[in-house]
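Honest question from a wet-lab person: if I give you the sequences of every part of a complex, can you actually get the arrangement of the whole thing, not just the pieces? Trying it with mine:
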Amino acid sequence: METKRYHATPPRGTTTTPASQPGVFDTLIQSSAVALFHDYGVAAAPLTPAFIGLEEFHAHYPLAVIGFRGPGMDAALILSIPREVCAQVRLDANRQLDPRDLSRELVNQAMGRIKNRLTQYQVTLKCGLPNSAETPRDLDRVAPQRGPLTVYRLRTIRAHILVATKGSIDPSHLAYSTATVLNGEGDIIVF
Amino acid sequence: MKKVLIVDDSEIIRQQLSRALSEAGLTVVEATDGVDGLEKVGEHDDIALLILDINMPRMNGLDMLDALKRNPRTASVPVLVLTTEAQNSMVARAKQAGAKAWLIKPVKMDLFVNVVQRFAA
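Yes, you can. This is the full assembly:
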């Protein structure tokens, strides 16, 4: 049976480019997070990434955390959504939303976007299930101990959303190619 | 009314889908993972369609899909996969296992309801 693909974004031509320069992974994370919040009705703009220590990481708890591994990567993606921004997230749900569940679902969807975009860089990630961290000690438990903490702040009209990675990420494994047919968020593939 | 089973570990997603499908006149049953989903399938013998997440604790969606297709009682129930996963290898595996469609989160609710109504008919 023929498979029908309804792409939210059109496929592009075929080129392959090494993408080992610093900043590619930062851009992937920022663009994935901005697009995710846009899809849920929250306008967000990325600010310059910061490399900081955990002691300087002033996040809104509970955090949502999801681990990922791949070539040159053993890290966790962390999402901190202030209460004011949680209230702005547009969801058609008829029961009261648990901010923990909302954060876990959004970090899961952010991870899905990053994982999907990385397939164009010939990298396949294995991801865990999303967790909540209630305190900094919890964060130590669910995120890798080694490797830097990189914090990406997204400015919204109400407050800053924090997206962070903790662990080792080596961008030298990334090689961009549009030969990979990329399915996008919102696509419906009927078999 | 047609009965739809939503299997997803995210309560937010279950709420969102449940509301949209209920408003479209469908009856909704919810399960939190693959194990719970198979139990719900056992409890309800009139499920017209399943909506299945992939990454879930205890039993993932692809394993649940395989279990459904192995059981003659549930093999013909249409299954739609709704997930953050977008990799072609996983899409191909679901197609081979007998899923009817693969939807990548987040999907527009009106499109989602149209696809559900089409396959639940």
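Two things worth pointing out. The interface with chain A takes residues 9-13, 15-16, 18-20, 55-57, 83-88, 91, 95, 99-109, 111, 115 of chain B (CB under 8 Å). Helices of chain B lie at 11-23, 34-43, 61-70, 88-97, 109-120.
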